[in-house]
Design goal:
With 306 residues, this protein is an alpha/beta fold. It has 11 helices and 7 strands. The chain has one domain: 3-Layer(aba) Sandwich (Rossmann fold), CATH 3.40.50. The chain has a 7-stranded parallel beta sheet with strand order 3-2-1-4-5-6-7, sandwiched between helices. Helix 4 crosses helix 9, helix 6 packs parallel to helix 7 and helix 7 runs parallel beside helix 8. The relative contact order is 0.12. Bound molecules: NADP nicotinamide-adenine-dinucleotide phosphate.
Amino acid sequence: MKSDSDKKHNKNGKNKDKKFTREDSARDEPKSDRSSSASQKKSDQIKMAVITGASSGIGLALAKQFAKNGSNLLIVGQSEDIYYTQECLEEEYEVQVTALRANLATFQGVEKLYQTIQMMRRPVDAIAVNAGIGVSGNFIYDTDLYDELDMINLNITSLVHLSKLVAWDMARRGRGRILFTSSVAALSPVSSMTVYSATKAFVLSFGEALRDDLKDTGVTVTVLLPKARDTDFFDRDTMDKEDEPDDSEKDDPDDVAEKAYEALIKGEDHVMIGSSEDLEDKGFITKFLTSQKQAKSAGDSAESKS
Ligand SMILES: NC(=O)c1ccc[n+]([C@@H]2O[C@H](COP(=O)([O-])OP(=O)(O)OC[C@H]3O[C@@H](n4cnc5c(N)ncnc54)[C@H](OP(=O)(O)O)[C@@H]3O)[C@@H](O)[C@H]2O)c1
């Protein structure tokens, strides 16, 4: 017997339950809100937020921001630490927190998260797709292929999978806020973080294009581009300690989360964290602005052809 999840994805990757087919979207078109101020105000109320990778670091700091602002939470992590985070958040803030332990680097892990969202029977007003890991070291001599494939599964595949499910639901409701955690490493190839920086470039490119795809639906996409943060990121065993910046170069994840939350609420397209001099020095800003222009002109020319 086929499970619900099997029905959604046949072996060609097409949705059997027509969740994303053109016929279905014609019947049940996502609402277009060329936002009236009233609906904009309503859409600012985040009653329920989902945060992935919330057991530590930037995700935990984001969870605190949402909780501080009165959102109930569904938080996701891979280790048992997520239950401890749940306890702490519930103790500190007067909000309901549901914790889910799932390996989002697997297809089943993402489906388990989506099933949990559905079982909660509360619409998701905001989602921070933040869980991510790094692998560092020379691609030829140091790194392990399986670590890199696992990272691609988490940083890219699960993000696309989850977006497909949640963005559709948001578009159908005519409101929602999506935050993707990319990195300044997305803006320039980074040797010794060869695959990692490419995964983060994917997140940035995907986020910008999805934002445009969703432009008439009332759903916004914001891409967060932090630089090195003081989190568990560099402690994981896929990371080469030599690639870790000095502590003086790292910032506090709470500052990142605060700025990211503000940008999300305003519906901004991206938030880049790090001093502008530092980012300009590295040529990051120029490259980012160029890529934004290219994305827009590619979108415009695709539209004019159709
Ligand atoms: N720290 C930096 O310098 C930096 C800079 C730029 C961008 N970023 C990005 O920021 C995001 C958060 O990183 P962080 O710095 O906060 O690192 P972190 O402290 O290591 O947090 C990573 C989070 O992701 C979760 N996670 C890892 N693998 C998972 C899996 N397979 N399934 C589900 N959850 C998983 C972890 O859960 P468990 O702990 O329970 O395993 C943890 O909650 C990542 O996307 C990273 O690429 C970080």
